[in-house]
């Protein structure tokens, strides 16, 4: 079935029942991605796993890449809640920001097939997937903001978070594509946080 709109329904317009159904679809996609990677997430399989009709799924998500990119939004929102419950550790801003980024990466390392699926999807030129990129960046910026100094200028905080977000994403993309290993992701994150934030330590 063709999607109802180019980018699917706006989650803000859904009823509570529709939102719960959409959440089931997202969780099913996350589970399938964790089990078998990008290729395992087929829309019909998601429909069967979530017990949501295929046509209904296409009203929420315009494509497989849109669905997986939205699943990454869910993952980063989960991370944001975890960091709120368990604040960043470290005596300096660079240590604290590095801590939350390494925690994010550690979660992805535990589910490499899911990481491959969501990073490939969020990198897609698909319009639906592209619509999720800002949400992922926003969630990661809020996560890093919790580790920034309270007296740091808001513009400086935003600039640091944006650059570190690009580094984190680029390192993950290199890992997913086989250019680097997981150890390299950690090293790049540590190097970037020290270079950008050590002036505030």
Structure report:
The protein has one domain: Tetracycline Repressor, domain 2. Helix 1 packs across helix 6. It contains 9 helices and no strands.
The major pleated sheet works out as: none
Strand content: under 5%
CATH T-level fold name: Tetracycline Repressor, domain 2
SSE string, helices as H and strands as E:
HHHHHHHHH
Secondary structure category? mainly alpha
In terms of quaternary structure, the protein is single chain
Using the 3D structure, state the CATH architecture.
Answer: Orthogonal Bundle
- Ranges where pLDDT stays below 50 over 5 or more residues in a row are 1-6
In helices, the fraction of residues equals over 70%
Number of domains: 1
CATH superfamily: Tetracycline Repressor, domain 2
Give Rg in angstroms. Answer: 18 Å
Shape: globular
Task: Count every beta strand, where a strand is a DSSP E run of 2 or more residues.
Answer: 0
Mean residue pLDDT:
87
């Amino acid at each position: 079935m063709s999607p109802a709109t180019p980018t699917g329904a706006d989650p803000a317009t859904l009823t509570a029942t529709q939102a719960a159904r959409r959440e089931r679809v997202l969780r099913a996609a996350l589970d399938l991605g964790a089990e078998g990677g990008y290729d395992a997430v087929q829309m019909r399989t998601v429909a069967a796993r979530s017990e949501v009709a295929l046509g209904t799924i296409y009203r929420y998500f315009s494509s497989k890449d849109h669905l997986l990119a939205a699943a990454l939004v869910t993952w980063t929102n989960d991370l944001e809640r975890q960091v709120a419950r368990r604040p960043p550790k470290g005596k300096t801003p660079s240590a604290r920001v590095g801590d939350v980024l390494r925690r994010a990466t550690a979660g992805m390392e535990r589910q490499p097939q899911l990481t491959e699926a969501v990073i490939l999807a969020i990198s897609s030129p698909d319009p639906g997937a592209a619509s999720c990129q800002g949400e992922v960046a926003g969630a990661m910026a809020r996560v890093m903001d919790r580790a920034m100094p309270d007296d740091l200028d808001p513009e400086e905080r935003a600039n640091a978070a944006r650059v570190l977000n690009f580094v984190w994403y680029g390192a993950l993309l290199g890992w997913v594509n086989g250019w680097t290993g997981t150890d390299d992701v950690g090293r790049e994150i540590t190097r970037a946080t020290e270079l950008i934030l050590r002036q505030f330590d």
